[in-house]
Write a structure and sequence with these properties.
mainly beta; six-stranded mixed β-sheet; five-stranded antiparallel β-sheet; 65 strands; about 0% helix; about 50% strand; globular
Length: about 700
């Protein structure tokens, strides 16, 4: 699932702070493209993606740019022989078409251009169009000589036969809308308080419905999303106090208006942004319109005058602005910042069964976010005495009774829900701890401890009784039971088994292909998955290792016995556990920075799974949350149909000759050589041919 490395001059990673917010929000990666990246002009007015994956952008000065994922190719006015802006970009079969003020242009795959000027001195200066099958309908054309009374025409252009038909003239200004494969149109002028709806039938526009508006002498401006959601702004003539915003529906040949609110500005474009949410832009900012709450929410990135929003086939948002292009990547990974300082330095995170999220910060101690997202600093006590300053460490867990165990520089801090003090932690002072493990079957929690005098393995049973056992000279990095129910202890320089009857440790004497055992997870078949300094290993019940990867592993998780998840070299790996258990098949999906997993600061064992199936990963200045089931449901990249670029022919006595388009060749038996040049573009990397 690698994505194409884009040539960029700026990457912004924006996170919402969870402090005092009502909900956990996504974070997104933004990539900016400007003139320095090859864009011919920074003012972009419209955009489009063709079936080959190329992104097309029309500029304010009449030029067109095609982006192949790494570079821009430009067509200027001289190349295209136009003298105005391009306001419409579309595609018919394999050919991209452009609509300018005076003509329709076709850019063929071999980059040749064909022109079709508008007849009868008509010109087109708007964006209003609809396509049904192979017919392009252009609304609101008018004659060049027309000055006073503005009457418009509707043109139909046959994309197959490449010819114009004037459907109707002397029309008012209309906004076309597509509903149930029927073309409707809304009249812009609200005359005598009546908003009029038209329908195109048998190549004729008929007014079919009127609805009474509260405001007389007004106009309505229609904005549409790519899914044909319709929004209207009603503005009273000469008024400067704002516009009334509606969501519009066409049902049974009737226009229904759902009032939203009044805004002091006019929106330029709108696009769907999840369930009941829309991106809307005005001249100064872009906002999120929440239809459930009927209010505007801030968008985390400021952009100057967004003229157009396009959603590509991968779900990424492309913003065409007055100052270049901004790509907003589809986010399957949610990123959070606490906002405690310049770097939160988060080493551990766990969400408990009461929907509290506990954060362990090396610099700022322990923090709890409740289910509303409100952040509270947790206080650590030992025998009623407050420990004012602590350094939070990695590896956190919740036991069977809802107690949360958080390692820190002096031991383990424990949240006990029975004490009814939501921000109070009780300290077990065993020396700093780097690992904690809950044995649910035996209701025992194990953790390491290291003081100036000794290193210990400690456990707390279900009654709260603490037991400690001297371990040796190496800090404990990981604790887990193996397939034979033995308690395994991992360190950076080896591993050991703990005999719980004799309370003694036995050093592992097996010949291993790794040095340090950093992380462990057990599956239901008894396979112990081991994250080591030398890669990921799967150990069976007989102690035999199967090496899966070679890079150092920072954490290992068994996700509901469906997937094994681990982190290596800032790359997230997800292995299909069912396939491995079935026949040893190793099927791994990877996610890195270009897939939205923007993570570089993770420490060892800083990942947990919550009750709802989300995986939380901590490290550095952020926490990332994701749902593995959502990631694994991503459709594979499907190759597009190949494009036959050229045919060459030769016989045994001649050189290769290009066969011209629309021509034929007579072939002789046994003396023919044919060469076919076929191009195949990848969806996410259209420059890879």
């Amino acid at each position: 699932m690698k994505k194409l490395l884009l040539s960029i001059i700026l990457i912004l990673n924006c996170q919402f702070s969870i402090v005092n917010s009502q909900s956990w929000e996504h974070s997104y990666s933004y990539r900016y493209f400007g003139v320095k990246d090859g864009l011919s002009q920074s003012q972009i007015i419209t955009s489009f993606q063709d079936s080959y994956g190329y992104m097309w952008f029309a500029t304010n000065n009449g030029e067109v740019n095609r982006f192949d994922g790494s570079r821009f190719e430009n067509w200027n006015r001289k190349n295209m022989q136009v003298n105005s802006q391009i306001t419409v970009i579309g595609q018919y079969e394999t050919t991209v078409y452009l609509v300018s003020m005076n003509s329709i242009l076709f850019i063929y795959p071999d980059k040749t251009i064909e022109y079709f000027p508008f007849p009868d001195n008509y010109f087109y200066s708007g964006f209003e169009h609809k396509v049904v099958e192979h017919h392009l309908y252009l609304f609101n054309l008018r004659r060049e000589a027309q000055t006073n009374v503005l009457q418009y025409a509707l043109f139909q252009f046959d994309l197959q036969n490449k010819c114009f038909t004037i459907v109707e003239e002397n029309l008012p200004y209309l906004y076309p809308v597509l509903s149930d494969k029927k073309i409707y149109a809304v009249e812009r002028i609200i005359d005598d308080g009546q908003l009029k709806l038209y329908r195109l039938s048998d190549n004729k526009l008929n007014m079919i419905y009127k609805t009474r508006m509260e405001k007389d002498d007004s106009t309505i401006d229609i904005q549409k999303t790519s899914h044909n959601d319709i929004f209207g702004f009603v503005t009273k003539s000469g008024a400067s106090s704002g516009s009334y915003y509606y969501r519009c529906f066409i049902e049974n040949d009737m226009l229904r208006l759902d009032y939203i609110d009044k805004y002091p500005f006019h929106f330029l474009c709108v696009e769907a942004f999840g369930s009941e949410r829309y991106l809307v832009s005005n001249q100064k900012t872009i906002s999120i319109l929440d239809m459930n709450e009927r209010k505007l929410l801030p968008f985390p990135l400021e952009m100057d005058m967004v003229n157009d929003i396009w959603v590509d086939r991968d779900g990424n948002y492309w913003f065409s602005t007055e100052d270049g292009i901004v790509k907003c990547s589809r986010a399957f990974f949610e990123s959070y910042k606490l906002g405690l300082g310049r770097n939160d330095n988060i080493w551990g995170v766990v969400k408990d069964s009461r929907n509290n999220v506990w954060f362990s910060s090396f610099d700022y101690g322990f923090w709890r976010a409740d289910e509303r997202g409100t952040l509270f600093q947790a206080q650590v006590f030992h025998h009623q005495k407050n420990i004012p300053s602590v350094n939070g460490y990695m590896s956190s867990c919740e036991d069977s009774h809802g107690s949360v165990f958080l390692p820190f520089d002096q031991g383990v801090a424990v949240f006990d829900p029975r004490k009814k003090s939501p921000n109070r932690l009780e300290a077990i002072l065993t020396g700093f701890s780097l690992a904690v493990y809950h044995d649910a079957e035996n209701e025992i929690t194990f953790f390491g401890g290291e003081s100036d005098t000794c290193i210990t393995l400690n456990n707390v049973d279900k009654d709260g009784k603490l037991s400690s056992y001297p371990f040796g000279a190496m800090a404990i990095m990981s604790i887990c039971r193996d397939g034979n129910a033995n308690l395994r202890i991992g360190t950076y320089y080896g591993e050991a088994l703990f005999d719980e009857k004799k309370n003694i440790f036995t050093t592992d004497t097996n010949s291993r292909s790794y040095t340090g055992l950093i992380a462990m997870a057990l599956d239901q078949k008894g396979i112990l998955w081991k994250g080591t300094t030398d890669g990921l290993f799967a150990e069976d019940k007989q102690g035999n290792d199967c090496q899966i990867t070679e890079d150092e592993v920072l954490f290992v998780l068994n996700y509901h016995d469906k997937y094994i998840i681990w982190l290596s070299q800032s790359v997230l790996h997800i292995l299909d556990l069912k396939a491995f258990q079935r026949d040893g098949t190793i099927n791994i999906s990877t996610f890195d920075y270009y897939d939205g997993f923007d993570f570089a600061g993770c420490v060892q064992n800083a990942a947990t799974i919550d009750k709802t199936g989300f995986v939380w990963v901590a490290g550095g200045d952020k926490v990332i949350r994701f749902h593995p089931e959502q990631l694994m449901k991503l459709p594979p990249i499907v190759a597009q149909k190949p494009y036959l670029a050229a045919i060459y022919f030769a016989d045994k006595n001649s050189e290769w000759t290009l066969l011209p388009q629309n021509s034929s060749i007579k072939l002789k038996n046994k003396e023919n050589y044919l060469r076919f040049d076929i191009l195949l573009a990848c969806v996410s990397a259209p420059d890879k041919l």
